[in-house]
Amino acid sequence: MADIDLKDLTDRYVAVWNEPDPERRRTAIAALWSPDAVHVLQPPQEMRQTAEGLGFERLTLEARGHDALELRVRRAYERFVAPGTFVFRSHGDADRLHDVVKFRWEMVPRAGGDAAGGGLEILILGADGRIGNDYQFIEG
C-alpha cells in the first residue's frame, strides 16, 4: 500500500466536486479513482422512503468506472456548485485503518453560514493508493 497523506487525499477528493473545468475534473477523477472504481451512494432518507413506498427494500445508487464517476461528479457540481450557491469542504477529520479511509464532508453556502448538508465518506484504497470503492452516506 502506498504511503498516503490523508489531508492531501481528502483535499483532492473534495476539490474534484468543486472543480469548474471539465478537463481538470476528468484528470482529477483518473488520479483519485482506479479505472474500475465504484462510488456507492446511500441516498437521503426521503429518497429511500419513496423507494420503499414503491416496494424496494434497499436503495443504493452506483457509479462504476471513470466515465460514470465523471457524470456523477459533474451532475453534483452543476446542481450545487455551478449556480454559485454551495461549495463542498472536508471536516479535516480523516482517519485510516490499513486500506480504509473515512472522513466527513459538508456542503456550505458559498456566501458563508451553516452547512446545508454533509456526509460520511468511506474509501477503500487499492495498492496504488487510488480509490477502488467509495461509499458515501448522506447525513443531512
| CATH topology value | Nuclear Transport Factor 2, Chain: A
What is the helix content?
25-40%
User: Which strand-content bin applies to the residues?
Assistant: 35-45%
Low-confidence stretches: none
SSE order: HHEHEHEEEEE
Secondary-structure topology with pairs:
Layout: H1 6-18, H2 22-32, E1 33-42, H3 45-53, E2 61-64, H4 65-81, E3 86-90, E4 95-97, E5 100-109, E6 117-125, E7 131-138
Parallel strand pairs: 1-7
Antiparallel strand pairs: 1-2, 3-5, 4-5, 5-6, 6-7
Helix pairs in contact: 1-2, 2-4
Question: Summarize this, please?
Answer:
By secondary structure, the protein is α+β, with helices and mostly antiparallel strands.
Description:
This protein is of the alpha+beta class and 140 residues long. It has a single domain, classed as Nuclear Transport Factor 2, Chain: A (Roll), CATH 3.10.450. Helix content is 36%, strand content 35%. It is built from four helices and seven strands; from the N terminus they run H-H-E-H-E-H-E-E-E-E-E. Strands 1, 2, 3, 4, 5, 6 and 7 form a seven-stranded mixed sheet that branches. The chain is globular. The mean pLDDT is 92.
